[in-house]
């Protein structure tokens, strides 16, 4: 079956809106970010939105292209990488982001928002890479 372009593009929009909001935090200094609880909550929310959209895209591709439903979120990105649908580098980064998402959602441990601040640019870049790599699948 073919991929649902409308569904994927809607998730791309979710990711892009999250990228736009997260990018705002790269313009302020770390102490300002960490001392403002609202900034932290906004960043957390947009990280979760982009992560959930990424997961949704992954499961859609796995179901439609590979006829599989991975048991875990991270294994979905491994599956796409194994079948050369996304790059190995992107898969590794997305697996880390999903681990962060799981810690935020399930509160396994304290989240180091200083670490997140230090890695905003890389996080944003990897969400952009996901959009670019998946876009080539729906052309």
Biggest pleated sheet: none
CATH class: Mainly Alpha
> Which oligomeric form is depicted?
single chain
Tally of domains: 1
Low-pLDDT stretches are none
Please give the share of residues in helix.
over 70%
H/E order of the elements?
HHHHHHH
Mean pLDDT: 94
CATH fold-level assignment? Four Helix Bundle (Hemerythrin (Met), subunit A)
Total beta strands: 0
**What would the principal axes of the Cα set say about the shape?**
globular
N- to C-terminal distance: 15 Å
Please give the CATH architecture.
Up-down Bundle
Q: Nearest-angstrom radius of gyration?
A: 15 Å
Total count of helical runs of at least 4 residues: 7
Strand content: under 5%
The CATH superfamily is known as bsu32300-like
Structural classification? mainly alpha
Descriptive report:
With 139 residues, the chain is mainly alpha-helical. It has a single domain, classed as Up-down Bundle (Four Helix Bundle (Hemerythrin (Met), subunit A)). 77% of the residues lie in helices and 0% in strands. It has 7 helices and no strands. The protein has helices at 5-25, 30-34, 37-66, 73-82, 88-106, 113-118, 120-135. Helix 5 (88-106) crosses helix 7 (120-135). The radius of gyration is 15 Å and the shape is globular.
